[in-house]
C-alpha cells in the first residue's frame, strides 16, 4: 500500500485545486469547485486508485448536496476537503465515514482561505475601477481575469502542496494508531451521520412537498432493486422516464383546463 504522496502527486493535486479555486478554466470550474466528485476522480487518477477514491468521494458528496454558496462563499470548501480527505483515507485505509469526518474540518479551513482570496481581490477591484474610468481594455482584462487567477494560484498551490506532501502521511499515521480506540469509533459514527444532513438540505432546497413522493419512490426502488445490482445508469434512465411521464401528465392536465 502507498504510504505517502510523492512530490509530483502532491503537486498535481495542489495544482488542480488552485486552478479550480481560481476559476481558471472559466465558469465551468465553479461547478468543479462545488462538486467533490471531479476532485475525487483527479485524486484517484493521480494516486492510481480510482475505485477507492470514488467510493470515498461519493460519501463526501452527500454532505455537500444541499449546500448553497451565497456570493460564491461556501461554509466549507468541497474541493479542498476532498483533496485532503481522500488521500488520507487511501493512505490510512479509512472507511468513507471516517473520511467524511476528516473532510468537514478541512473544508472549513479551506473556506477561510477562500475568504482571504476575496479580501485580497478587494485591492484588485480598485485597479478595475481605475481602468474602467480610463476605458483601458487591456487593463480591465488584467484586473478582472489575470490578477485574480494569479492570486488564487499563489495562495492555494503552496499551502495545498505542503498540506498534501507533509500533512496527509502524518494524519494517516495518526488515524492508524486510533483504529482500535474510541476516538476512531466516534469518527465513524459522526461521519456516518453527516450524509443525512446533506440529504436533508437537498430536500429543503427542493422545497415542494408534492415532489417528496419522487424521493420516496427512488429510495424504495433502490432498496427493492439492490439484490439485482442495478447500476446508476439504469436508475438514471428510469428517473428520466418517470420525469417525462410526470411532465406529460401535468402538461395534459394544463391543456385540458385551458380548453
TrEMBL record:
GO terms for molecular function: transferase activity. Its main location: membrane. GO terms for biological process: phosphoenolpyruvate-dependent sugar phosphotransferase system. It is found in: Cell membrane. One of its GO terms (cellular component) is plasma membrane. It holds the Pfam family EII-Sor. It comes from the Bacteria. InterPro entries: PTS_IIC_man. PROSITE patterns: PTS_EIIC_TYPE_4 (PS51106). It is a multi-pass membrane protein. The chain crosses the membrane at residues 40-64, 100-120, 140-165, 185-206, 211-228, 234-254. Keywords: Cell membrane, Membrane, Phosphotransferase system, Sugar transport, Transferase, Transmembrane, Transmembrane helix, Transport. This is Phosphotransferase system PTS, sorbose-specific IIC subunit. It comes from Thermoanaerobacter pseudethanolicus (strain ATCC 33223 / 39E) (Clostridium thermohydrosulfuricum). The lineage of its organism: Bacteria, Bacillati, Bacillota, Clostridia, Thermoanaerobacterales.
